[in-house]
Write a structure and sequence with these properties.
The complex is a heterotrimer. By secondary structure, chain A is of the alpha+beta class. Chain A has helices at about 40-50, 90-100, 105-120, 135-150, 165-180, 195-200, 220-225, 230-235, and strands spanning about 5-15, 15-25, 30-35, 55-60, 65, 75-80, 155-160, 185-190, 205-210, 210-215, 240-245, 255, 265-270, 280, 285-290, 300-305, 310-315, 320-330, 340-345, 350, 355-360. In chain A, a hairpin with a 5-residue loop joins strand 12 and strand 13 (about 265-270). The relative contact order of chain A is 0.12. By secondary structure, chain B is mostly helical. Chain B folds into two domains: about 1-35, no CATH class; about 55-290, MetI-like fold (Orthogonal Bundle). Chain B has 14 helices and two strands; from the N terminus they run αββααααααααααααα. In chain B, helix 2 crosses helix 14, helix 11 (about 215-230) packs antiparallel against helix 14 (about 265-290) and helix 13 packs antiparallel against helix 14. Chain C is built from 15 helices and no strands. The relative contact order of chain C is 0.13. By secondary structure, chain C is mainly alpha-helical. Classes of the chains: A alpha+beta, B mainly alpha, C mainly alpha. Chains in contact: A-B, A-C, B-C. The interface of A and C includes residues 50, 89 and 146 of A. Bound molecules: adenosine-5'-diphosphate and magnesium ion. Adenosine-5'-diphosphate binds near residues 41 and 43 of chain A.
Chain lengths: ~375, ~290, ~280
């Protein structure tokens, strides 16, 4: 269990620059998720940490040791590959023991550690089978077994759930969470699925186009998105981002005017807000429906998605601004209907023209 | 595939360690002799190490050498005798044997079996099939009251006799290539044709043949290159005779190099052959590339 | 055979005409073989008078007994075995090592070297054999086993085949092994090589067959009868036909010489067909 420190990592593939001076610190024992759209560089960063790619510049430290100059096998890092990469011609036992054998561990110790890994992962009965005969979930456990048996200081998972069907994915997510509690090690998981990141990780690193957008706990990421990218990427359905104008005044909190003229009194401090080019950010659950009322925005229902426990209602304001609202499961809304929007203005976010987020004061985060 | 660097062989040394042994063999036993052979073709050279640079004199000699010209003619004639026959017969066999089941597999095995024999065994067998002096064919003709045919001693029949032997020996490979081509044709096409009441003959011309066009081309080119290199059959069965009537280019090279030890001259003949084969190989490469696309 | 058996399943998908045609062709195909076997079972003096005596008894194993008494033939079989097995082993080793390097390792000039190796596929034996013969003369390698084995090791087909095969194996396996602390040699030997077994079989059988049946190089390199391979030995007794002990003996030699390779064929038929067809169309 060691802390990981990336300093000024740069990497390019030919003409394509993936990272330019990326830095990140992960505390010992933390479970961190790299979250971002496909192609943003998550896997590349993981592979640089593992030593499968070499960074063009920068430094990596694990605990008090510099590891970017070491061979992959000497870094004290274990990785679970997206397609598991089990050795097809070896039994499960041989797969798990392979790394220990290469390290020259004594036979008795290898047997003991393989047995221990098998016990933790409940794969004892599989030990003498070949990977080809295992199910997807079993293969993944073997892949995890191959990683934990080495007692690494750092675990790396590349899209660990991406290859599983929906039911198995939920179950494996729980198993990973439990594994996490049993195996005390620093862990990094790569995923493009925000639910995985939010449910499993202590902290989430949101990435886009090779740059870290925000690092924070799942709730920080959700409640106080650092910028419009994070606001749009995390949360489903997406946060509504509507252009607004700042209403002049000298109150402590900003009041803004939507395109249709209606005003919203946020709890965002006016102090260091830019005065132009603002976007109002509203999560769907902060926009409820009701009969139209004076002083509140009215809108026309464009499209309805019934999810059973709740209903998503896509509406348009008078000036055409699109807003996503949430209603109860048994929603009465109908397409074409004119409705009033009840905004939970205290939970609204504002984003400046540079994309930076400004959030309600005093909320936990 | 190009993923990763750094760990893929520290500065290249590991790569050379793995590829090195083969590259040494390749350089020393293939590339060097190839270049040395080209150089040799520009020299008058003999067995005893005498060597004199003569530029293109050897090639000039070749052009006017009636023995070489006859060998080139023989080689072309032999290719014409064998390649069409091999193609047609092996295609017919492939069509007949493109079936599941043990019986078809057994027959495929029979027709391919001769291909695994060495040239010396094949010629041994066929000399005593072809010989007018109590050979298998002569026995058959005698039973039918006919005179025996002097296959290998008649200048007009020597190459056809060798061609017959060669077709028997070589038809397994093109048959297998055609079978592989036929396997690629979706069965639904034949079912559709059968539902339309298309005759077998028409099905062959309109469906099968167009769909194995590439295979056909590949077979013709491969066989042309192979038969162009005729050597053992002539060398063993007729020694190129009678009167050079069955001497192909490769036998010419062999005789000049290893019987008359006029190595420079032989090298020039082998360069001419190389150029011809390279041309056919280039065609084959173009054809297979086209097919893979 | 019953009347009901004539159609349907017993024809195994053949039409009656098709089956008759194929059977006739097969008969033509194997008649020369039967003729050879028949002649080998007749006493030589009887064949001298009239070869049609082959169609009736008496038959004898005398010719085979004569072969067993002739130490030369066994020597040739031994030589062929040594040469073919060594060539096969050498080609498998060199091709696998080089295939791994070309498919997986980075080194300066890798692409250019691989292209150069591929171009080697188009070089026919005739273009190198004269200079190679001179080279081996200078090195005193003629009439030795290395002299017979070495040329086969330069064939590029194996490198081409193994490189393609290694490329088809997911790179994740190498990477997993790297993280497991494996060296390049361990990755090659313990992780990837076992997965190339099908390709090894194909290449091995193809190489063995080509080496066993090779004629031209052993013909000019092994000039001493004790160093003949079986292929060259059979050719030599055939050329000296007049001096040998007769037609039956010669035919027995043909049968005897075919047996090893036909056994190999019977055992590995599928592999052989795949290997030969693969090498032809590469
Ligand atoms: N080996 C490589 N060669 C060239 N470009 C690469 C290579 N690996 C990744 N890339 C590029 O780097 C970027 C990041 O890729 P990756 O880390 O795989 O993204 P993610 O895992 O986030 O989907 C992509 O644009 C990808 O095309
Ligand atoms: Mg990825």
């Amino acid at each position: 269990m060691s802390s990981l420190e990336l300093t000024n990592i740069s990497k390019r593939f030919g003409a394509v620059s993936v990272f330019q001076g990326l830095s990140l610190t992960i505390a010992a024992g933390e479970f961190v998720a790299f979250l971002g759209p496909s192609g943003c560089g998550k896997s590349t960063l993981l592979r640089i940490i593992a030593g499968l790619e070499r960074a063009d510049s920068g430094e990596i430290r694990l605990g008090d040791q510099r590891i970017d100059t070491l061979a992959p096998g000497a870094r004290g890092v274990a990785m679970v590959f997206q397609h598991y990469a089990l050795y097809p011609h070896m039994t499960v036992r041989e797969n798990i023991a392979f790394g220990l054998r290469n390290g020259g561990a004594p036979k008795a110790e290898i047997a003991e550690r393989v047995a221990e890994a098998a016990r933790v992962l409940e794969i004892g009965p599989l030990l003498d089978k070949k990977p080809g005969t295992l199910s997807g979930g079993e293969r993944q456990r073997v892949a995890i077994g191959r990683a934990i048996v080495k007692q690494p200081r750092l675990f790396l998972f590349d899209e660990p759930l991406a290859n599983l069907d929906a039911a198995l994915r939920t179950r494996t997510r729980l198993e990973l969470a439990q594994l996490r509690r049993r195996v005390r090690a620093t862990m990094i998981m790569v995923t493009h699925d925000q639910v995985e990141a939010m449910t499993l990780a202590d902290r989430v690193v949101v990435m886009n186009q090779g740059e870290i957008q925000q690092v924070g706990t799942p709730m920080q990421i959700y409640d106080r998105p650092a910028n419009t990218f994070v606001a749009g990427f995390v949360g489903s359905p997406r946060m509504t981002l509507a252009p607004v104008g700042l209403v002049p005044g000298d109150a402590r909190f900003a009041t803004v005017r939507l395109g249709d003229g209606s005003q919203v009194s946020t709890r965002v401090p006016r102090a260091d807000l830019p005065s132009e080019g603002l976007l109002l950010g509203l999560r769907p659950e902060c926009v409820r429906l009701g009969p139209p009322r004076p002083g509140e925005p009215t809108a026309q229902v464009e499209f309805i998605e019934r999810l059973g426990d709740r209903t998503l209602v896509y509406v348009k304001l008078g000036d055409g601004t699109a807003v996503t609202a949430e209603d109860k499961g048994a929603s009465q809304a109908q397409v074409g209907q004119t409705v009033g929007l009840r905004l939970a203005a205290a939970a609204a976010h504002l984003f400046g023209p540079d994309g930076r987020g400004h959030h309600a004061a005093g909320r936990a985060g | 595939m190009s993923a990763g660097d750094g760990y893929r062989g520290r500065g290249g040394l590991v790569g050379y360690l793995f590829a090195g042994p083969y590259l040494v063999a390749y350089g020393a036993l293939l590339v060097y002799p190839l270049l040395a052979g080209m150089a040799l073709s520009l020299h008058k050279a003999d067995l005893f190490g005498g060597r004199e640079f003569v530029a293109f004199e050897n090639y000039r000699r070749l052009v006017s050498d009636t023995v070489f010209r006859q060998a080139v003619g023989n080689t072309l004639y032999f290719t014409l005798l064998t390649v069409p026959a091999l193609t047609v017969i092996s295609l017919a066999l492939a069509l007949a044997l493109n079936k599941a089941g043990r019986l078809a597999a057994f027959f495929r095995g029979v027709f391919f079996s001769s291909s695994v024999l060495s040239v010396t065994i094949v010629t041994l067998i066929w000399r005593f099939v072809l010989t007018p002096d109590g050979g298998l064919i002569a026995n058959g003709l005698k039973a039918a009251g006919r005179a025996p045919i002097p296959f290998l001693s008649d200048p007009h029949l020597a190459l056809p006799g060798i061609a017959l032997t060669t077709v028997w020996w070589c038809l397994g490979l093109p048959m297998m290539l055609f079978l592989a081509g036929l396997q690629q044709i979706p069965g639904e096409l034949y079912e559709a044709a059968a539902l339309d009441g298309t005759s077998a003959w028409r099905t062959f011309w309109r469906i099968t043949l167009p769909l194995i066009g590439r295979t056909l081309l590949v077979v013709v080119l491969i066989e042309s290159v192979m038969q162009f290199q005729l050597f053992g059959q002539s060398q063993i069965m007729t020694q190129g005779g009678p009167n050079g009537a069955s001497r192909p280019i490769v036998l010419f090279i062999y005789e000049v190099a290893f019987r008359r030890w006029d190595v420079g001259y032989a090298a020039s003949a082998s360069e001419v052959l190389f150029a011809l084969i390279l041309l056919a190989s280039a065609l084959q490469y173009a054809a297979t590339r086209e097919r893979r696309r | 055979m019953t009347a009901a058996g004539v159609k349907g399943p017993s024809l195994a998908g053949f039409t009656p005409a098709g089956l008759a045609g194929v059977a006739l062709a097969a008969a033509v195909m194997i008649t020369p073989l039967l003729w050879t076997v028949g002649l080998s079972l007749k006493p030589n003096f009887e064949l001298m008078r009239d070869t049609s005596s082959v169609f009736g008894p008496p038959y004898t194993l005398e010719n085979y007994r004569a072969i067993l008494a002739n130490s030369n033939v066994f020597r040739w079989v031994f030589n062929s075995t040594v040469v073919s097995l060594s060539t096969t082993f050498g080609v498998l080793a060199l091709s696998s090592l080089a295939g791994y390097a070309f498919a997986r390792l980075e080194f300066r000039g890798r692409r250019a070297l691989f292209v150069a190796v591929l171009l080697g596929l188009a070089i026919p034996e005739q273009a190198v054999i004269i200079a190679r013969h001179q080279m081996f003369s200078a090195l005193h390698l003629h009439n030795t086993y290395p002299g017979l084995i070495l040329p086969g090791l330069s064939a590029p087909f194996g490198v081409f085949l193994m490189t393609q095969y290694f490329r088809g194996i997911p790179v994740e396996l190498d990477e997993a092994a790297l993280l497991d602390g494996a060296s390049h040699f361990t990755i090659f030997w313990k992780v990837l090589l076992p997965l190339t077994l099908p390709a090894q079989a194909t290449l091995g059988i193809f190489t063995f067959l080509a080496s066993w049946n090779d004629y031209w190089w052993p013909l000019i390199s092994a000039t001493r009868s004790s160093m003949f391979t079986l292929t060259v030995g059979v050719a030599s007794s055939q050329m000296n036909f007049a001096q040998t002990s007769g037609l039956g003996y010669l035919m027995a030699q043909a049968v005897f010489a075919s047996v090893p390779i036909l056994i190999v064929y019977a055992l590995f038929q599928q592999h052989i067909v795949r290997a030969v067809a693969g090498a032809a169309t590469r």
